[in-house]
Each structure stands twice: as structure tokens, then as C-alpha cells.
Design a protein that fits this description.
single chain; alpha+beta; three-stranded antiparallel β-sheet; two-stranded antiparallel ribbon; 4 helices; 45% helix; 20% strand
């Protein structure tokens, strides 16, 4: 009988052939010559077994997919960091990190006076949260 060279392209470092009961061991992405009838049975599972000629193509596609996924993850992390910064009430002032969300309107007014910030005083109708946002935006510039 003729032999056909096929390769295992799954996730594991090696795969035992349990489909045809031949118990051959296939290292990941390495072609192994097998009898033609066994090869045709295994090739019915194209996500796991491919012909030797297709191994490099599959590896290239997997590398491109992995690179794309990594790029998307980096973009997602950058977006999360930007959102966290935009929602954060922590500011740097005179070399210190100050969390404005823990300050009352009186303490915010004291902070404005102590650092000569160009922020109008809190109006009677203005909420403390809105006042905090104005102070934060003035500090961040």
C-alpha cells in the first residue's frame, strides 16, 4: 500500500491516533507517513489533521490570527486604561496624588485657595459631584 504524509495541527504537543485504533503518535505540526487508508480516515477531520503540504499554510494563518488577537487585546487594554483615567478623580497636584472623590466641598474650596486654582466657588445649586468634576478638570488642564 502507498503511504501519505499527514500532520496533526491541534492544540496539544502530540496526539495519539484513537480514531483508527492504530495508536500512532503524531507530534504537533510534524508530518508523519501513514498508510493511505488510515490517512484518509484521519483527514476527515480537517481541523485536526492535514496533508504535509498544508502545514506551513496553516501555521501562517494561525500566526496571523494570533497577532491580530494580540493587537486587539492591546487596543482593548489601552481603551480600558483611557476610560479608567477619564473616570478617575485622582489628580497629581504639587507632587502628591489627591483623590478628590474623598473630599467635601469645603475641603475642595480649601484646596482651590491653597493652590491658587482658577476655579469659581461652588454655587448653592451645584452638586458636590459637579464641583469635583470642575476642580478635577481645572487641575488636569
Amino acid at each position: 500500500m502507498s503511504k501519505i504524509s499527514i500532520a496533526y495541527i491541534g492544540d496539544k504537543p502530540f496526539k495519539k491516533d484513537t480514531i483508527t485504533s492504530s495508536l500512532l503518535i503524531f507530534p504537533q505540526n510534524k508530518p508523519v507517513e501513514v498508510e493511505a487508508d488510515i490517512a484518509y480516515m484521519l483527514l476527515q477531520y480537517p481541523k485536526v489533521w492535514v496533508r504535509e503540504e498544508q502545514v506551513e499554510l496553516i501555521q501562517t494563518e494561525l500566526k496571523i490570527e494570533a497577532d491580530d488577537k494580540a493587537q486587539q487585546e492591546r487596543e482593548h487594554q489601552a481603551q480600558l486604561a483611557a476610560e479608567a483615567y477619564a473616570n478617575s478623580m485622582v489628580v497629581e497636584l504639587a507632587g502628591q496624588s489627591i483623590d478628590l472623590s474623598k473630599m467635601t466641598s469645603v475641603k475642595l474650596a480649601t484646596l482651590i485657595e491653597a493652590h491658587d486654582l482658577a476655579v469659581d466657588a461652588k454655587d448653592a445649586q451645584e452638586s458636590v459631584d459637579d464641583f469635583r468634576l470642575r476642580v478635577r478638570n481645572a487641575i488636569r488642564g
